[in-house]
Structure formats: C-alpha cells, structure tokens
Amino acid sequence: MGTFKLIMGRYLIFLMLTCIGWINVLPAQCCSGGVPIAGNLSLPGSKKGEVQLQLTYDYNRLRSLFNESENLGDRTRQRSTHSSLLEASYGISKSWSVVSLFSYVSQERIIETIIGQRELTRTLGLGDVVILARKSIVDNNHWGLSIGAGPKVPIGRNDLKDDNQLELAADLQPGSGAWDAMFWLSFSKYRLIRDRLNFSLLGTGRLTGRAERLSGRQSYEFGDEFQLLFGFSERVLLGKVLIDPQLMFRFRQVGADFVNELPLPNTGGSFLHLMPGFSLLANENLSFRFSAEFPVFRYVQGTQLATSQKLTASLFFRLSPSQRSNTPFSLP
C-alpha cells in the first residue's frame, strides 16, 4: 500500500508539473485579436517623388467568449489591444512605390478568478515592421487597381516575461519572432451609379513563418491570415467641410496556430465586421478618418475571446513636390 501511494504521489507531482508547463507554453486564453498589421495597410500608391504618411490609433476590445459560433456569456476574461501605427509610402516611379508600416503595441489581459480576484497582465513594445513594393496597374478617373508584396520583418520582441520570470504566451508578445510573407491588393471603382459614389476593395494576405521560443524548446507559428475590406463611400459637402461617409465590411479568416508543428487547439476562425466611418478632408494633403467596427458574424475554432468593439482613428499627410500649396478639395 505504501509503495502504491508513493507511485501515485510521484505520478500526481509529474502531472501537476506537466500541466504547469503547458500553461506556460500555451496561451492562457486564445483570442481573435493580436497586433493589427495586415488590416492597416491602407495607403494608396504614391506618385513619383511623393511621400504619404498616416498615423493611426487602433483599439481592439475583446470581451465576448465564444465556443464556435455560440456566445458563452462569460465575462471573467477580457483582452484589449492599443496599437499606434505609422504607415509611410514613397513613389519611386509613375507606377511603383514602396510602403512600410511600423507599430508600437500595448496589450492587456484580465482574468477574474473563482474567488473574485483580478489577474492583470500587461505588455508593451515595438511590433514587427512590414515593407511592401507596390505596382499601380490602372489609375484613372473610373478605375484603380494596385498590387503589392513584401516581408514582415520580426523586429518586435517575442520573449517578454511575467513577474515570475515565465515567458508570456505568444499572443501577448508585441512581435511574432518570425518572417512572414505579405500580399496586398487594392481595387476601386469611382463614380458608381452617380459621380460621388465610390466602391473600394482592399485584400491582404499573410503567410506566416516559424519562430523559436522558450530558449529553443518550442517552435511557434501563427495561423495564415486573409482579410478583405470592402464597401462604399460618398463625398458630401457639410457647410464648408468635405466629408466622405463610409460603410464598409471587414472579413477576416485566420488559420490555426502550430506549436512544434502540431495544430494548437482554440486558435483560428472566421469573422465578419460592419465598419461605419467617415473622413474629414481639409485639403488634398491633409485628412482625418475615423471608423468603428461591430461584429456581424464570429466563428472560432474551439473556445476563444472575440472582438466586441473596435475603434480606429487616422491622420493622413501628403508631401508632393509638384504641389506648392494646399489645394482645397472640390466636389465633382
């Protein structure tokens, strides 16, 4: 009997250590959020010698716990991501431009325990950088079509630790630690039905690479990602201010993550968001854009937190050698 208890005691200790190890290796809770790099590559192509800059603040709040498409109504877990982004574009020639996207990310995770305590984990730091080469195929008063491709360069840290010096889960790190391949497509149809109504479609794809974590004891690969942003805008004059009201949709498809080449449960899913917004246009070189996102459809693999609300605000600048003054916009 004593031998049996000794064996069972050692087995339980082994089981507890194994569980603790997996808690450290896997995300404490998987979610549909993350650093919003692919969804913010939105600058149009620059003309030769032209510089475009866009400063963006992106806030993503995740409070809805889903099992596949069922909202579990669990409010004991929540996440939020605050991202500051700088996108810059420079025109190399009439049809070619190069675009880069830099990010600084702050993430928060709150878990309420069964005894009512709140465990807060916060991370912040520089995120990864995207560099794209873009080609303008069609650009006239009726149509616009551009394509682009390039790498996501892993300059952000992916080895941040908590207060106990345990490495945090991959989805809480500001960087992924891996090189990714990025693809980009922009299509526009101007003067749709009437002169001031436009249709736009923006597609981005990300083929992810593999990163080494936990001092080389783990390989981690985020799921491949595809996003499609599409909808309508119309230019209106409100007093002396030109406004572009917008009604857009965002579809996002994310594959499962892989740990040591095995699919990770509770990762990946499909999401459709409604995005009302507007742009205020001061002149051809300066504008402000704001949009909100509200979930329409969410389907996650397993059980995950999903976005409840999302807000984005951007300030756009254009520096063009051919323009000596800030020319006001006019209606068509």
Question: Tags for this entry?
Answer:
4-stranded antiparallel β-sheet; mainly beta; Lipocalin; disordered N terminus; 332 residues; 1 helix; 12-stranded antiparallel barrel
Mean pLDDT: 86
Helical content band: under 10%
- The name of the CATH architecture is Beta Barrel
Shape: globular
What name is given to the CATH topology? Lipocalin
Strand order of the largest sheet: 1-3-4-6-7-8-9-12-14-17-18-19
Structural class: mainly beta
CATH superfamily: Autotransporter beta-domain
H and E order:
HEEEEEEEEEEEEEEEEEEE
Number of separate domains:
1
Proportion of β residues? over 45%
Output the number of helix runs: 1
How many DSSP E strands?
Answer: 19
Q: List segments where confidence is low: pLDDT < 50 over at least 5 consecutive residues.
A: 1-29, 324-332
Question: Major sheet, described briefly?
Answer: 12 strands, antiparallel, barrel
Q: How large, in whole angstroms, is the Cα Rg? A: 23 Å
- Reading off the top of the CATH hierarchy, the class is best stated as Mainly Beta
What is the first-to-last residue Cα distance?
90 Å
Walk me through the structure.
The N and C termini lie far apart (90 Å). It contains 1 helix and 19 strands. The N terminus and C terminus are likely disordered. It is mainly β. The protein has a single domain, classed as Autotransporter beta-domain (Lipocalin, Beta Barrel), CATH 2.40.128.130. It has a 12-stranded antiparallel beta barrel.
